[in-house]
Design brief:
Blueprint (H helix, E strand, L loop, with lengths): L9 H22 L19 H11 L3 E6 L4 E6 L10 E9 L4 E9 L5 E6 L4 E6 L4 H16 L3 E6 L2 E5 L3 H17 L5
Antiparallel strand pairs: 1-2, 2-3, 3-4, 5-6, 5-7, 7-8
Keywords: Membrane, Transmembrane, Transmembrane helix
Length: 194
């Protein structure tokens, strides 16, 4: 009868211990960096909304808005009820667009009684700035609201400049509160509250 060699030799046991402990150590180290994972899905999550924020907006906040259903675009448009409605002078309204198929929310600058491009002049206590805007896609509207957000929250004075002619924009307290409310609701939808 031949004697078999043992499978778990002392050298093999040493190698297994090194491998097992180093693997467990790597898992432990990488678990601390779980929040820094790369997004390899290819999805742009800039405009993504979660169900709780969407339901809060639809059930609680949407009563302050005029709703327009756009079946052709598959979106619902929400315009604040306290916005200025003027049929003669140029106005710029903030509109929240909900795309329920993609579970996304967009912000849109709706220009009335004028043509693009426009300029928005903002005067705060510290400085005066002018922003050029020529309409565009979702990202351009989002970038513009990001630039104006701080100024709106600081109660800056705004003018809409169309063809080198200035028009007051969001000038009275009612309009300012409507614009601030739209900003708050939109960034809450995106889960980007301050």
């Amino acid at each position: 009868m031949t004697k078999r060699d043992p499978i778990l030799t002392p050298e093999l046991v040493k190698i297994l211990k090194i491998f097992i402990f180093s693997s467990l150590g790597l898992v432990l180290v990488f678990s601390f960096f779980n929040g820094y994972r790369a997004n390899n899905s290819g999805d742009d999550r800039t405009f993504r909304i979660n169900d709780s924020n969407r339901l809060y907006f639809l059930n609680v906040r949407s009563i302050h808005y005029d709703k327009e259903i756009r079946r052709d675009a598959g979106m619902n448009l929400y315009r604040h009820g306290k916005r200025l409605v003027n049929d003669s002078e140029p106005t710029l309204d903030l509109v929240i667009l909900l795309n329920s198929a993609k579970e996304e929310a967009y912000i849109y600058f709706e220009l009335k009684n004028a043509d693009w491009p426009i300029r928005i002049s903002a005067k705060s206590a510290e400085e005066s700035q002018t922003f050029e805007f020529a309409n565009g896609n979702n990202l351009e509207h989002f970038a513009m609201i990001q630039r104006l957000r701080y100024l709106i929250e600081e109660n800056a004075e705004f003018e809409l400049i169309v063809n080198e002619k200035p028009f007051p924009l969001w000038s009275n307290d009612r309009e300012k509160e409507a614009v601030k409310s739209v900003l708050e609701d939109y960034f809450r939808l995106l889960n980007q509250t301050n």
